[in-house]
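Priority: medium. Attachment 1 of 2:
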């Protein structure tokens, strides 16, 4: 019995090998695609995380800049408030100072009554000597009165009167022989000048070496000074 090649067997083997290679090729291709997909996924995921991290970092920087700007604005506002408080405080002090100066000016103008301690300065004519060439050298003139008044004001007098008549910045004092006229009213010696203020200061100012008192004495004027504890002067427009 002779053996002959079976053609159908060869065909079967070819088909089987073909199927095996086909399946193997599919498996290899699938594995390659799967590996590539995982690599792309990992690459995409890493890129996304980097972008997100960069975005958050940028937002943080912007927020820090915003906070810095807000802090600077807050400091400016605080400085403005502090400056306003300081100017308000200075304004209060300035207002108080203005009120004090206004009150002093009103007293000086005679617009308000004044009370307090003070100094009384009396000016009398000197003793006339018959052998003197000029009798006017022994009487009180308006210049002597003005010397006393100016010195008292400089020393801080708040108000001044002559023989009970209160004077003001526009008072007119004129000497006519042995009398003086104060705002149209005549007075004869002695002339009593009263000033409201600190008696010790007013008197010390009058007694300065080479000052008003020495000049009056050199002009043969008799001067007496008395410190007063209670002096009252009405306002110029007062009826009392």
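Attachment 2 of 2:
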């Amino acid at each position: 019995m002779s053996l002959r090649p079976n053609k159908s067997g060869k065909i079967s083997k070819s088909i089987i090998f073909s199927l095996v290679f086909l399946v193997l090729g599919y498996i290899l291709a699938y594995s390659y695609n799967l590996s590539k997909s995982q690599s792309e996924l990992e690459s995409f995921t890493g890129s996304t995380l980097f972008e997100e991290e960069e975005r958050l970092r940028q937002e943080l920087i912007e927020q820090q800049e915003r906070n810095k700007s807000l802090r600077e604005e807050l400091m400016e506002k605080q400085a403005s408030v502090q400056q306003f408080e300081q100017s308000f405080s200075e304004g209060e002090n300035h207002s108080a100072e203005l009120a004090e100066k206004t009150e002093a000016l009103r007293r000086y103008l005679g617009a308000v009554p004044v009370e307090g301690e003070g100094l009384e300065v009396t000016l009398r004519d000197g003793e006339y000597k018959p052998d003197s060439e000029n009798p006017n050298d022994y009487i009180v003139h308006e210049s002597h009165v003005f010397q006393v008044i100016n010195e008292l004001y400089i020393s801080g007098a708040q108000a001044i009167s002559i023989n009970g008549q209160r004077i003001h910045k526009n008072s007119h004092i004129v000497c006519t022989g042995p009398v003086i006229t104060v705002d149209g009213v005549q007075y004869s010696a002695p002339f009593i000048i009263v000033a409201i203020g600190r008696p010790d200061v007013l008197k010390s100012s009058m007694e300065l070496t080479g000052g008003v008192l020495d000049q009056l004495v050199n002009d043969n004027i008799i001067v007496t000074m008395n410190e007063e504890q209670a002096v009252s002067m009405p306002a110029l427009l007062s009826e009392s």
